[in-house]
Write a structure and sequence with these properties.
This protein is an alpha/beta fold and about 325 residues long. It has ten helices and 17 strands. The protein binds nicotinamide-adenine-dinucleotide (NAD). This is Gfo/Idh/MocA family oxidoreductase.
């Protein structure tokens, strides 16, 4: 494959535009085409990013033979068809989290990738955040001993829930921590117990707790919520503590990092996931993830840092969390 990776993006909503921005700023990637049924989104690609090939039907993008990699950034429950068709048309694929909201679909993606000899990488970008990645390294290097118990919190501003209640909170937020917990524990989950609460009466819980017990005895307590008041000005209020037999790794985001104080109050914006910098580069774990993937493809190596088997197990755990929180008690996988 040529050293420049030619990319197609399917789904150009909020996060798809972040993919476009980050790919656009990478030296060894070129966004050859984008697809979204909404013409206004295609106009953004044309005008802001100078993408010349924009399609309302993604099948036209997939018919092209000059595209190496497709990013699938459609709405959570609409990943299967573009992923499978992209693989069958000979492209490698990056599929956003959750890889699917259905276990059978996640397994199908993996099966088709193997059958076609193409790569499908799950978009679990926190594995590319140096803070989370360094916890994994500390575990692997024996710096905190064997993991015993983990606590992971993910909290977002209330106004976002109007959009993201479209999917159960486990697939939207907690899936990040499920992936980290599986990655750190290096084991499969044996039992799941979860609780959800919806102060607004929504079908998807605004507050979700889950306790995972792994086959090797590790415990993980996961907490996701959409309860940060908008006026608190804290984009991301996340926390992690991994207690090992020989030490602890932890960080908390709401009181650290960049703070802006002005007449409208205080804001604590994200600077770790994705930002556009003044010199037209992007920074954050999304960039690191895309860079890693393009590097692997350019060198003809498998992008195996995020295993698809882990992503499939993540969806299996998420399904059990939905059932348990709905009243089914403890679920044994
Ligand atoms: N990794 C992260 O931190 C992160 C952050 C945000 C979102 N996401 C994930 O990214 C995905 C997209 O989320 P979003 O917030 O951008 O949603 P969004 O609703 O803003 O965008 C989804 C886009 O997909 C388009 N779409 C729907 N059907 C399509 C089709 N058949 N062909 C092409 N495009 C189609 C829609 O028109 C829309 O523009 C989800 O899986 C979400 O969970 C990941």
């Amino acid at each position: 494959m040529a050293s420049t990776v030619r990319v197609g993006i399917i789904g150009l909503g909020n996060w798809g535009e972040c993919h476009l921005e980050a790919f656009h700023a990478l030296p060894h990637a070129e966004v050859a085409a984008v697809a979204d049924p909404r013409p206004d989104r295609l106009d953004v690609a044309k005008i802001k990013y100078d993408v010349s090939s924009c399609y309302t039907d993604y099948n036209e993008l997939l018919e092209r033979d000059d595209i190496d990699l497709v990013s699938v950034v459609t709405t959570e429950h609409l990943h299967l068809d573009p992923v499978v068709k992209a693989l069958r048309s000979g492209k490698h694929v990056l599929v956003e989290k959750p890889v699917s909201t259905r276990l059978s679909e996640a397994a199908e993606m993996h099966r088709v990738a193997l059958e076609q000899g193409r790569y499908v990488m799950p978009g679990h970008l926190l594995r590319f955040d140096p803070r989370y990645a360094d916890i994994r390294r500390a575990i692997a290097d024996g710096e905190i001993g064997r993991p015993v118990s983990m606590y992971m919190k993910r909290a977002r501003e209330q106004h976002l829930f109007a959009t993201y209640s479209r999917t159960h909170t486990v697939y939207e937020l907690m899936i990040h921590d499920i992936d980290l917990a599986v990655w750190y524990a290096q084991s499969r989950v044996r039992t799941v117990r979860a609780y959800g609460r919806s102060p607004s009466g929504s079908e998807a819980p605004e507050v979700l707790w889950a306790c995972l017990e792994f086959e090797n005895g590790v415990l993980a307590f996961l907490h996701s919520n959409w309860m940060t008041p908008d006026r608190a000005g804290i984009a991301i209020a996340d926390q992690i503590e991994v207690i090992g037999s020989g030490g602890t790794a932890s960080f908390e985001t709401s009181n650290s990092g960049l703070q802006l104080w002005n007449e409208t109050g205080r804001t604590t914006p994200d600077t770790n996931i994705h930002i556009k910098t003044l010199h037209k580069q992007t920074a954050g774990s999304l960039r690191e993830q895309l860079l890693y993937l393009c590097d692997c493809l350019g060198r003809g190596e498998a992008p195996d840092y995020v295993s698809f088997e882990d992503a499939i197990h993540g969806v299996e755990i998420a399904d059990a969390i939905v059932k348990s929180a709905a009243g089914d008690g403890e679920i044994r996988l």
